[in-house]
Amino acid sequence: MIWVTVISAGREGLGKLRRPFEIRRRETILPDESTGVDGDPWPLAQADAPYRLVFPAPLRLRRKGRLIESPTLADLVAALNRRIAGYLPERYRSLWLQLGRQLLELARQRPQVAWQGTRLDLVRYSGRQKMELELHGISGAIELPRGPGVLLPLLAAAQWLHVGKQTVMGMGQLLVEPVR
Predict the structure, then answer these.
(1) 51 with 159: CB under 8 angstroms?
(2) What is the DSSP string of 146-166?
(3) In the predicted model, is pLDDT for residue 1 greater than 70?
(4) Confidence of residue 24 (pLDDT cuts 50, 70, 90)
(5) How distant, in Å, are the alpha carbons of 39, 80, 99, 176, 177 from that of 144?
(6) CB of 71 within 8 A of CB of 142?
(7) Which of 31, 51, 75, 117 ranks highest by number of CB atoms within 10 Å?
């Protein structure tokens, strides 16, 4: 389904001038950002190895209108569930939300080391609102000493989708790193 969408977008073109494009080759991007052969770049055999979830760019997760300053794996999974649901066609959303509740329960049970990080606030100009906006966020990491388990593919997707509010600006960028 993704390739059909990309091929259609290529025919219709991108940008203001709608310039068509075609994909001449593709490569698998592995977790360490190297490229490799087609296959499973996120082998679940490694899912129980220690991992670190790093947020180098500001992360904005909110609960009841307030910034979550010490997020947990469950907070991240809840935000990812909402983010992914927004990309799905309506007919699949209820199935995803049902699966999301199960993933959230698994995240709550997964051992983790408490959030280590600091505040990282930014100011940006909003053309729509014609004013500068202050964006409150945090930057830091969570360690998963026994790995993310079955949550690894979800976290792999989060590296490209990002997490939290204002993600279109690159905020909420996630790096999933094996702990060596």
Answers:
(1) no
(2) T--GGGHHHHHHHHHH--STT
(3) no
(4) confident
(5) 25, 17, 22, 10, 10
(6) yes
(7) 51
For tokens 């600006």, name the residue.
169
| pLDDT at residue 39, rounded to an integer | 52
Q: How many CB atoms lie within 10 A of CB 153?
A: 13
Q: What does the chain come to in residues?
A: 180
- Every domain of the chain and the residues it spans: 1-36, 42-178
H helices within 13-132, ranges in order?
A: 73-87, 90-109
Gap between the Cα atoms of 66 and 104, Å rounded: 20
DSSP-derived letter for residue 88 is S
- The pair of structure tokens assigned to 154 is 């979800």
* C-alpha–C-alpha distance, residues 150 and 84, integer Å: 17
Which CATH number is 42-178 given?
Answer: 3.30.70.1900
Q: Are 54 and 158 in contact (CB under 8 A)?
A: no
Q: Are strands 113-119 and 138-144 parallel, antiparallel or unpaired?
A: antiparallel
Q: What angle do CA 155, 139, 121 make, to 5 degrees?
A: 130
Q: Which residue has the higher pLDDT, 126 or 50?
A: 50
Residue pair 23/15 in contact by the 8 Å Cβ criterion? no
